[in-house]
Design goal:
4 helices; mainly alpha; single chain
Length: 75
């Protein structure tokens, strides 16, 4: 095999190796980002649950005050 062909194969192998390493690094970074986004989503869900609107949390109080509201409207 001529020397130019061997040189071309070596250069091609090096390029493929560098691209493969770069793709592996991208995969690991994406996995870390996915994990972090999962934690952020969990935190946002907790905050949303803790800051829900008052009427959604006080349905029983609203039901107990219904007679008072009806009386006030009739006056």
């Amino acid at each position: 095999m001529p020397g130019a062909a061997i040189g071309t194969l070596i250069v091609a192998a090096l390029i493929i190796a560098f691209v493969a390493i770069a793709l592996l690094r991208v995969i690991f970074h994406l996995r870390a980002t996915y994990s972090t986004l999962g934690k952020v989503l969990g935190g946002v869900t907790v905050v949303a649950d803790q800051t829900s609107t008052v009427p959604a949390r006080l349905t029983s109080v609203n039901e107990h005050l219904k007679p008072v509201s009806d009386f006030c409207e009739s006056v």
